[in-house]
């Protein structure tokens, strides 16, 4: 399936899942009073760039670049608000960023630069979406409203690009939208207010390691020494930031 159609099906199925859950609980009334068009645009930008970037880079590399960009975006906001890392925490941030630099330096196993840049832009979108989520009063309603808006904005993509709808691709897109995105993002918006910006930023960097090993197990991707070292740097940086909070 092409990346644009996959993105639209993902967003639409997430919207259908969440609106259906709210309707079953009698809480769908006034839904669009929640969330915002700004959040919807950042959600769409994240999802669309994410799909296009993964056409040229492996799963683990993509996740590493994505959440490094997320971290930098959210930490910038934390510093601006006066709640950024201090002391050991900054050393951890530097270590994590060093891991990203080591991963993307030119070399035999360096990933595709265009894919890396698109994934980095996707990470900025997700970081902004997470920052907007800190003020959500109702996580389920806000997420549902954002998915409804973003899937509506994405409709022209499917008009311009001839959709390809293979059954297997549809199944993956619907699963990605309804379960791992829709329900997963509700959970994320629920815990965000209790984490704080800095901790929320760095905890997400555990995802690349999970993705790298899942890519090896499910997609026959190779765990290169460069990827393993970069993952170690990222996890070490996370640990230092968390420890600095104590």
Sequence-ordered SSE layout with sheet pairings:
Layout: H1 3-24, H2 37-53, H3 59-81, H4 88-104, H5 113-133, H6 139-153, H7 155-160, H8 167-195, H9 197-203, H10 207-218, H11 225-244
Could you characterize the architecture of this molecule?
The protein is mostly helical and 246 residues long. The chain has one domain. Helix content is 77%, strand content 0%. The protein contains 11 helices and no strands. It has helices spanning 3-24, 37-53, 59-81, 88-104, 113-133, 139-153, 155-160, 167-195, 197-203, 207-218, 225-244. Helix 1 (3-24) crosses helix 8 and helix 3 packs antiparallel against helix 4. The termini are far apart. The model has no long low-confidence stretch (mean pLDDT 83).
Q: Oligomerization state of this entry? A: single chain
Distance between the amino and carboxyl termini: 47 Å
Q: What structural category characterises the helix and strand content?
A: mainly alpha
Unreliable residue stretches: none
- Percent range of helical residues: over 70%
What's the mean pLDDT score? 83
Q: Helical segment tally?
A: 11
Question: In total, how many domains does the architecture comprise?
Answer: 1
**DSSP, total strands:** 0
Largest sheet: none
Question: In sequence order, what are the helices and strands, one letter per element?
Answer: HHHHHHHHHHH
Strand share of the residues?
Answer: under 5%
Gross morphology is globular
**How big is the Rg?**
18 Å
